[in-house]
């Protein structure tokens, strides 16, 4: 598709797009489940259950009327709910262990092309996060993984969770830009669709391993995005970086 | 003075501490004054007058009851007020020129030791801004000057201007840290004094050229800060980076 003028800023979804979540969370959850004496629970299934609570939780957040609460706190609540679903009472567990387990989301690892791709894209475009992750989470992840963000933006800065339009529009506004000057880069069609509704440009990055090789839950929402890339280095090629 | 445990994050004042403002603003203002046919106005004096409005404006902000407004907007208002003080009616000028002049604050230049100092400090500590500058301003300045921030925080993120305690405490809270785990690095005693009141650690960096070699207006507020350095590279030496 023709994509007209280039964006002035690239704003990135992070979980799944920039870093892998399923591999690292399953790996850490396996160790934690073992540690609490529940090694029989399947860590991959546990991880998918935890993530499913996130996806439905975020979609419902704006309607819930709940005051903005950072993702570290929601991740903890969702971990405890997932444990209960698996017949484990989190009240019997060490709170420090639960916090450490929750913070596994701060320790996610970049996809193999991520650091090179971001570094190249950054030469030409400011690169910012437009993630639901809170600032402390994004900061720790960036330092561990060498993610060279120009700024950490998104949910905590706008006080709204994607796919709430305020998360996208607020990020553009804070940057002092019109929505069409910002391009969301994401591996998720539902995220890109919400950004396009707000007038942002859109760049899809395929992450076939996000769900361990299975189809993504939003595959049916695919559209003809302004850019479509196989990796962040491929996106850098396409954008002339 | 003994300074006990090391901080976990270094949070930087920017205007005057990380970048020079007087040289670049006087230089750009000289060109703009010439352009609008008022080359007879002394650009250095004009710059000091503009900055004075900022210093008094920020000190009074919390009491003013005004809803949070980003610094780019306040810089513009203060520029227009400074022009009026010099008998120039800003309503007669091109708004695009006034915006460009205002954005001179986005184009400030790092002190000679800044990039090396920040780069070394960043190896050991997360480095964030704790400035009154808004995100778009800090982002543009960082990309122009090569300032390797881990995150842009401060006024726009906390919705409060230093020296309002909420700017310091809110930054620590968003980082998920106790105030004493954050160290403000600043060239200004009044800023450090306000941070210390909030429980933050403090590091003074001498910037004798900030006022063109004249004494700083807050020199009388000097205290025995946890660290006191001649430059950011000196601070890196002292912190073992």
TrEMBL record, chains A, B:
Q: Could you confirm whether the keyword Calcium appears in this record?
A: no
**What are the record keywords, sorted?**
Hydrolase
InterPro entries, alphabetized:
2-HAD, HAD-like_sf, HAD-SF_hydro_IA, HAD_sf, PGP-like_dom2, S-2-haloacid_dehalogenase
Reaction equation(s) it catalyzes: an (S)-2-haloacid + H2O = a (2R)-2-hydroxycarboxylate + a halide anion + H(+)
Q: Which GO terms describe its molecular function?
A: (S)-2-haloacid dehalogenase activity
Query: Which domain of life does the protein's organism represent?
Result: Bacteria
Known EC number: 3.8.1.2
One of the Pfam families matching this protein, by short name: Hydrolase
Write down the SUPFAM superfamilies for this protein, in alphabetical order. Answer: HAD-like
- Write down the PANTHER family for this protein, in alphabetical order: HALOACID DEHALOGENASE, TYPE II (AFU_ORTHOLOGUE AFUA_2G07750)-RELATED, HYDROLASE, HALOACID DELAHOGENASE-RELATED
Q: Which family does it belong to?
A: Belongs to the HAD-like hydrolase superfamily. S-2-haloalkanoic acid dehalogenase family.
This molecule's function is given as: Catalyzes the hydrolytic dehalogenation of small (S)-2-haloalkanoic acids to yield the corresponding (R)-2-hydroxyalkanoic acids.
**This protein's name:** (S)-2-haloacid dehalogenase
> What species does this protein belong to?
Sphingomonas dokdonensis
